[in-house]
# Entry
Amino acid sequence: MLRVSIIGGSGYVGGELLRLLLAHPGVEVAHVTSERLAGKPVASTHPNLRGHTSLQYVPASKVAPCDVLFLALPHGSAAKRIEEFAALAPKIVDCSADFRLRDTAAYERWYGEEHPNPAWLGRFVYGLPEIYREQIRAASYVSGVGCNATATNLALLPLARAGLIDTDRDVIVEVKVGSSEGGAQSSDASHHPERSGAVRSFATTGHRHTAEVIQETGVERVHLSITGIEMVRGAVATAHAFAKSAITEKDLWRAYRAAYTPEPFVRIVREKQGIYRLPEPKILAGTNYADVGFALDEATGRIVSICAIDNLGKGAAGSAVQCMNLMCGLEETAGLEFWGLHPV
Amino acid sequence: METTCPECEATISLNADTVEGEIVTCPDCGVELEVVSVNPPELALAPEVGEDWGE
Ligand SMILES: [Zn+2]
# Structure
């Protein structure tokens, strides 16, 4: 059994990691940290775990050396303390944005500050197995992925790899997301009577995950807008790109199959009949699946590519556990077999 | 018997007792297909039924 610990376990990503790791057949969870909640049962913040664990939060200073350390800390914390964490475990998966970008200039542009620890940037592999499976297998340090970036990357990757996009035109991506993306901290804006039923355009321009999309797809002229909708979990990216030459839907089928056959967690969803014809985030809640679909307007060459995920699943903790499986030589799908619910 | 979907190019296996005129559904794109020939196996888009899919 691998001994793993979670630094920062009281937030939503920490809770999702804990849910997946406690049920994982190859893993034993040693410590889960929270400075604020030290001594309290982890089930006091994650009630779905009642009866499944008697673990209590400990302060980070109490964490013993282990095989794998997951970091689920607020932005900037992991980078400032990475040497301390690296002394505790030979393998680290950091779910924050601190080590996602390879280029310090890109980091400064999108995060508006100097990277606190640029020497470590090159030591992390970007944790999207659909791109970096072999590098992740060999890695000691893997960076988790951004949820909106993941939905967008998986929507654009087949088109980018097949060279179908007219790179002289802009690619516009609208991402609709659930409220859990805002994290477990409450704010005036998340107060239930204010948030409930809202369609909130909260990141119309300048979203930081754009940097990850440019880095991973190579599509330079890509623009993201994020809208919070009436959903707790889920993200669906709808990308609009223009084909560089006349194509048919068959060309799109070939491109998507080339990118995702036989990926264990990416399904091509583009059906001619039935109710769920294109990716729908609600049936993915709690799963590690990314459903990807497309449509083509042959008259204008506009390709609409859609990817749905659970933002806490494939968009965060699920991908992180998938990476741990690869890094530790476990079955890639171990602990991630939940199929989701219908109806839900 | 194996053939391909005329809509999405998925490989489709037909049972040995498949007969001409049978309707099959593509497992990948969900389109309804009519078996227009069994030797060699060939599929064509079946006439569409009324659409009741909406917002
Ligand atoms: Zn088909």
Notes: The interface with chain B takes residues 249-250, 253-254, 268, 270-275, 277 of chain A (CB under 8 Å).
